[in-house]
Specification:
With about 400 residues, the chain is an all-alpha fold. The protein has one domain. It is built from 14 helices and 2 strands; from the N terminus they run H-E-E-H-H-H-H-H-H-H-H-H-H-H-H-H. A hairpin with a 2-residue loop joins strand 1 and strand 2.
Length: about 400
C-alpha cells in the first residue's frame, strides 16, 4: 500500500494558509537580506487562494456526476443538493450564531437584519458600510452555494456534446471570453477601478464574474474522460512536476506584484488582478488537477492519513490542513480581529508574528473541535445512490 499525497486536498490546505497569511497583515521591509527586501514572499494573494478554492470546487462538484455518484434524475439531483447542504450549513450556521453572540453583540440589532437575510440566503456581500461584517470570508461560501445550485443543470446541458478535446477547449475559451467581456463591460459601467467597495461588489464576489473559474475546474472531468490512451508514467510525472512549478512561480509573481504595487494587504483590485491573474489561476489550477487526477485509479489504494503516514511522508501534513480548511477559513479572521488588540508593539514584525500565531493556533483548535463535533456527524447523513433515502 502506497503512502501517496492527496494533491487536491494538500492544495486546498495551501490555499487556506495563503488566506490566513495575508489577513495577518504582513509588514513591509521585514525580510531583509544584504539590502534586498524579500518581504513580498509573505504577501500571499488572498484572491488567488479563493480562486483556487473555486476551481477545485468546480472539478469536485462535476466529478460527482461524471463518476455517476449522482444520477441526473430528480432523486439524484436532490441527493446532490442535500449533501452540499449537509457539508456547508451546519458549520456555517454555527459560526454565524457563535460570532453574533460572543464577538459582535450588536449584530442582532434591526439595522443588521438585512445582513442576516443575505447570510442565510447566500447572497452575502462584503463591505456594506452601514452593516456589520460578521465574518468577511463567508462571501465565498455564498458564491459557491450559488454554483452548487447550477451544477446539475450545467452537467445535463454540457455532457452530451463535451466528448472531444476540441469541443472541451472551445467551450472553455467561450466561457472565459464571455466572462472577460462581462468584466470589461462592468468596469465601464461602474467606477470600480478607484472604488474598493464597488470592486468587491461587481468584480470580486458575484458568481457571474467567477463562473469561468468554476467551469474551468468542472471541464477537467470531460477532459479526463476524453483521454482514450494510457499516458506513460514518465509523462505523468513530468506533468505533475510542471504543474507544481507553475503554481509556485505564479504565487511568487502575484505576491511580488501585490507587494510592489503598494496596494497594501486588503483586497487588491487592478486590471491585472481581475483580467489576468483570475483566469491564470483557473487555468494553472486546472492543469494541476488534470496532472494529478490523470489515471489516478491506476495507483492502487493509499494509506490512511495517520501520524505514522505523515511521519513517513511529511508533505501529507498539508492534508490535515486541507481537511480542516473549512473550519480554519471561517474562524481565522474573527480571531485575528478580536485578539490582535491584546498585544501591541512598535515592531511590525512582532505584531505580524503574534497575529499569525494566534490565528493558526486558535482557528486550528476551533476547526478540530467543530470538525469532529459538527462536520463529521452530519456527513454520516449524506446519500449518493438514487434509490437511497435518509
Amino acid at each position: 500500500m502506497q503512502n501517496r499525497v492527496d494533491a487536491l486536498l494538500s492544495l486546498r490546505g495551501v490555499a487556506c494558509l495563503m488566506v490566513v497569511f495575508i489577513h495577518c497583515s504582513p509588514p513591509r521591509e521585514f525580510l531583509l537580506c544584504q539590502g534586498y527586501d524579500f518581504s513580498w514572499i509573505l504577501f500571499a494573494p488572498g484572491g488567488v487562494a479563493v480562486w483556487i478554492f473555486f476551481t477545485l470546487s468546480g472539478y469536485l462538484m462535476g466529478k460527482g456526476f461524471y463518476t455517476e455518484r449522482y444520477k441526473t434524475d430528480k432523486q439524484g439531483i436532490f441527493n446532490f443538493w442535500q449533501n452540499r447542504a449537509l457539508r456547508i450549513l451546519p458549520l456555517y450556521i454555527f459560526v454565524i450564531v457563535v460570532l453574533s453572540v460572543f464577538a459582535y453583540p450588536d449584530a442582532l440589532r434591526p439595522k443588521n437584519w438585512e445582513q442576516y437575510a443575505r447570510l442565510f440566503t447566500f447572497t452575502y456581500r462584503l463591505l456594506n458600510s452601514d452593516l456589520i461584517d460578521i465574518d468577511a470570508p463567508l462571501w465565498s461560501l455564498s458564491t459557491e452555494v450559488q454554483f452548487y445550485l447550477m451544477v446539475p443543470f450545467i452537467y445535463v446541458f454540457t455532457h452530451p456534446f463535451l466528448k472531444k478535446l476540441s469541443d472541451i477547449l472551445l467551450f472553455a475559451v467561450a466561457i472565459i471570453s464571455a466572462v472577460f467581456g462581462l468584466k470589461l463591460w462592468v468596469s465601464y459601467q461602474h467606477e470600480i477601478r478607484t472604488n474598493l467597495i464597488l470592486a468587491v461588489k461587481y468584480w470580486y464576489t458575484p458568481l457571474a464574474t467567477n463562473v469561468d473559474i468554476f467551469i474551468c475546474g468542472f471541464l477537467i472531468n470531460p477532459l479526463l474522460k476524453s483521454i482514450r490512451y494510457k499516458v506513460p508514467l514518465r509523462q505523468q510525472k513530468l506533468m505533475k512536476i510542471a504543474s507544481v512549478v507553475l503554481l509556485v512561480i505564479f504565487y511568487c509573481t502575484s505576491a511580488y506584484y501585490f507587494y510592489h504595487t503598494n496596494l497594501g494587504v486588503s483586497v487588491n483590485f487592478t486590471k491585472t488582478t481581475v483580467f489576468l491573474f483570475q483566469p491564470l489561476t483557473a487555468l494553472l489550477t486546472s492543469f494541476f488537477v488534470f496532472a494529478f487526477e490523470l489515471q489516478l485509479d491506476k495507483h492502487g489504494k493509499n494509506q490512511k492519513l495517520l501520524p505514522t503516514s505523515i511521519k513517513n511522508n511529511p508533505i501529507r501534513a498539508l492534508e490535515v490542513i486541507g481537511n480542516l480548511s473549512f473550519g480554519i477559513y471561517v474562524w481565522h479572521l474573527p480571531i485575528i480581529l478580536r485578539l490582535s488588540p491584546l498585544y501591541t508593539s512598535a515592531a511590525l514584525w512582532k505584531m505580524y508574528c503574534f497575529r499569525l500565531v494566534i490565528a493558526l493556533t486558535f482557528s486550528t483548535a476551533l476547526a478540530i473541535t467543530t470538525y469532529y463535533l459538527i462536520e463529521v456527524p452530519f456527513a454520516k447523513y449524506k446519500a449518493y445512490k438514487t434509490n437511497l433515502t435518509n
